[in-house]
Amino acid sequence: MADLKTKKVSLKDIAQRAGVSTALVSFALNGKDKEHRISEETVRHILQIAKELNYKPNIAAKNLRSGKSGTIGVVIPDISNPFFAQIVRGMEDVAARLGYTVFFGSSDEYASKLQGLVESLINRGVDGLIIAPCEHSEEFLQQLVESNVPIVQFDRPYKEIESSYVALNNHRAAYLATSHLIEAGFHRVGMVAYDISLSHMQERIEGYKAAMEHHGLKSEITIGYAKSDNVRKSTAKVIARMKEKGVDALFFATNTISVAGLYAVSEQKIAIPHELGLVGFDGSDAFELYATSLSYIKQPIEKLSSKAVEILVNMLEDDNSTIQSVLIDGELIVNASSS
Amino acid sequence: MADLKTKKVSLKDIAQRAGVSTALVSFALNGKDKEHRISEETVRHILQIAKELNYKPNIAAKNLRSGKSGTIGVVIPDISNPFFAQIVRGMEDVAARLGYTVFFGSSDEYASKLQGLVESLINRGVDGLIIAPCEHSEEFLQQLVESNVPIVQFDRPYKEIESSYVALNNHRAAYLATSHLIEAGFHRVGMVAYDISLSHMQERIEGYKAAMEHHGLKSEITIGYAKSDNVRKSTAKVIARMKEKGVDALFFATNTISVAGLYAVSEQKIAIPHELGLVGFDGSDAFELYATSLSYIKQPIEKLSSKAVEILVNMLEDDNSTIQSVLIDGELIVNASSS
DNA sequence: ATGTTCGGCTATATCGTTTAAGCATAGGGT
DNA sequence: ACCCTATGCTTAAACGATATAGCCGAACAT
Predict the structure, then answer these.
(1) Which helix (H) or strand (E) holds A137?
(2) Tens of pLDDT, residues A151-180
(3) Contact with chain B for residue A260, Cβ under 8 A
C-alpha cells in the first residue's frame, strides 16, 4: 500500500533483487530499453520485480536530478470566487491529464501577495506559472518574463508584456451585452464597473462604449464605479445614483458586481426589467433564481482553463514553442432581466 | 530575480565565495550556528553573501535529504462547489501561515478517483493529507491509516476509522433546523437528502428524526432522496411528491439540494413560506437573493478549514500528538423562508 | 614538557535518480 | 590469427542540502 512512514523501495532494491545495476533498472522503468539496447528478457524481469516490490519513484530525487517537478503554479485573485473556483477545477483536470499537478494561490488582487505567491511557488520548484495579474504587478511580471520564467497570463493579461495569454474577448462580450440591451429597447444604458486599469475591465468598458457609439448613443455614456473592498455598498450607491440620472438599464461588469447589483435592486425595490434592464457577467445560481432571472455574459470556462494549461505545458515541453495570445468569445444568455 | 532557467545559486557557491565549507553555510543559514559553535563573524559573513547572491535553497534537494516536502494534499469532492471552494481558500491561508503549501484534487465523489488522487499526491511526496471521504472509500482510508499515512478526515469522516477528523456537528445542526421549522408552526416537516451512507448525511437525517420525535411528530417522518447525478430534476420530483403528501415544510440537507430546491419551488410556483416553509444548508448568494430569502444552516468555514490544517500539521511536527476528533457547531440563519 | 579541553571549522557520506562513459563478450569479416 | 562491431551491461559522477565524525590549534592544567 501507499505508505509515507516505512522505508520505500528504491532503484537499488530492485537492482539488487534482479542482479543488475541501478542504471539498467532506471532505463527499463523509463522505457529507454531500446535506446540502451537492453535485452527483452532483462526488461521483463526488471519490470516484474518492480511491480512485485510496488516500486514508486522518489519524486524529490527525480526533481533534483532533472530540474523539473511536473508541477505548475496557478495564481488567481480568489479561489472562493465561484468563477475562479470553476476555472481552477478545469485547470486541475487538464493538468492531470497532461501529467502535471497544480499548486494554487489567491492574490486577493494585491500585487505584494501575488509576488509573494509567485516567489514561493518558484521556490517550490514549479516548472511554470499561470497568473491572473492584478494591478501594479506589471513590472514584476515583466521581470519574470525577462528571467525566462515560463508564464501564461490569464483573464486580465498585460498585453504589452511579451508572454502568452488566455482571456475572454472582453471587448466583444461587452459590446454584445450592451447592444442587446439597446436593441431590447433600453436607450439610457449605464455600466457598473471597477475603477481599475486591468485589461479585462478596460476592454469591457471600451466594448460598452463602442456599442453605445455604434448605436448613436454616445452622449449618454454613464459609467459608475463600484469599490472592490465594499462591493455591496458601493454598487448600491452607484445604482441609486444611476437611477436618478435616468438610466433605464445597466450592464454589470463582473460577477461580484452582478451579485451586488441584484442585492441592490432587491433592496431598492426596483422592478426588473420594467424600471431597469439588466445584464450581468459570468453566471451564478443567484442569477437564475433571482425573481427576474438575470441575463448575463457566460464565459467558456472549460475552454479558458484548458487552453491556458495547454499553452503552458506546450511551452514547457516544446523548446521552440512560440508565444500564443488567445482570446475566446463569451456567450450572451438572455433571461428575463433584459426583455 | 526569481529565475527558472538560469543556474541557481547553491550552497557551494556561497561557501566558495566565503572561503568556508558548505556545511558551515548550511548551519549558518539554518540558524544552527550556536549549536555548532560558529563564530559570530563567520555567520554574519555567510548571511551577507547569501543575501548578495540572492540564495534560494533548492527544495527538491531539501526534500530528498529530509524526506519531507512541506506540502499537504487535500482531496475534496469538487472545488467548484462554493462550499468547498471557500473551505479550500481557508486551508490555503492557514497552511501558508504554517509554512506549508497545498495540493488539491477533486474526487467527484468517486472512490476510484479519490484513491487515484491520494496515490498521486503521496507519490508527489506530500507529508500528509486532508481527505473528505466519499462512499466506498472506507477500506482504502483504513489502509492508509494502517500504513501510517498522516491523514485528517474532513466533513464526512468515517468515525470508526482511527484517524483524526474535523466536521460539522451535523446531528445538532439538523436538529436545530428541524426544530426551528416545527416551532415556527410547521408540523408536517419533510427532509430532502441524498441516499448515501456517509456520516454527514446520516447524522443530518438522524438529527432531523430526533427533532421530529422530540416534538412528538414521529409518525410524520418523510424523507425524500435526491439523486446526486441529477440534483435539479430529482429534487423537483421529490418536492412535488412531498407536497402531495401534505408536507408543509422542508429541510434541505446540502447546499446543492438547497439550490436545486429553490429552482424547483420557483418552477412549481410554490409560495414560500405560506405553502412551504424552507431551511437550507451552507449558504449562498442565491439563498439571500431568492424572492423569499432562504433560512439556512451556516457552516463555520474558517474554523473547519483551519482546524483541519492545524491538526494535520500538528501531527506532522509533533511526534507524540494524539488523534483528535473535532465537531464544530453550525449556526441557524433565519430568513423569510421559514417564518 | 605533556596531556586535556574546547572553540572553530572541514571532509565526506547520504538521500534516490539519471546518464555519460566505458568495459566485456560474442560473432563477423578479412 | 586479427581487428572490428554490436550487444548488453556496469561504473560512477552528478543534482543540492544536511549532518556525522573528526581535524587542527590554542589555551589551560599538571
Answers:
(1) none
(2) 999 999 999 999 999 999 999 999 999 999
(3) no
Nearest-Cα residue of chain A relative to residue B265: A289
> By 3-state DSSP, what share of chain A in percent is helix, strand and coil, each rounded to 5?
50, 15, 35
Contact yes or no for A226/A235 (Cβ under 8 A): yes
Q: How confident is the model at residue A71 (pLDDT cuts 50, 70, 90)?
A: very high
All cell numbers assigned to A141 = 511580471
C-alpha cell at A105: 494561490
Residue B37 burial (10 A CB sphere; 0-12, 13-18, 19+)? exposed
Give, in order, the Cα–Cα distances in Å from B15 to each of B25, B31, B48.
6, 16, 12
Residues in chain B: 339
pTM confidence score? 0.92
Q: Please report, rounded to a whole number, the percentage of residues in chain B having pLDDT higher than 70.
A: 97
Distances (CA, A) of B196 to A232, B167, B191: 38, 17, 14
Alpha-carbon span A202 to A196, nearest angstrom? 8
Pairing mode, strands A71-76 and A101-106: parallel
Between positions 61 and 80 of A, the ones with CB within 8 A of B are: 61, 63-64, 69-71, 78-80
Burial class (CB in 10 A: 0-12, 13-18, 19+), A295: buried
Cβ within 8 Å, pair A143-B1: yes
Count Cβ neighbours within 10 Å for each residue of A115-124 and write b for 16 or more, e otherwise: bebbebbbeb
Contact across the interface for A103 and B101, Cβ inside 8 Å? yes
